[in-house]
């Protein structure tokens, strides 16, 4: 899985609060697991910032 900040996909710098996730050549189960881990990690980071 590759994750990139959304602003690099905009010539005008939009999408600063977005991200782009790319994945290929893996089973659905592996992709779902990777997305779950990313979600859990983001939730932990948000909780720490409060």
Distance between the termini: 28 Å
Q: Give the overall shape, derived from the CA principal axes.
A: flat
| Number of strand segments | 2
Structural class, by secondary structure, is alpha+beta
**Helical residue percent?**
40-55%
Organism: Pseudomonas syringae pv. avii
InterPro entries: PyrdxlP-dep_Trfase_small (IPR015422)
Protein name: Aminotransferase class I/classII domain-containing protein
Explain this structure.
The protein is an alpha+beta fold and 50 residues long. It has one domain. The chain has one helix at 28-49, and strands at 2-5, 19-22. Strands 1-2 form a two-stranded antiparallel sheet. The chain is flat. It comes from Pseudomonas syringae pv. avii. InterPro entries: PyrdxlP-dep_Trfase_small. This is Aminotransferase class I/classII domain-containing protein.
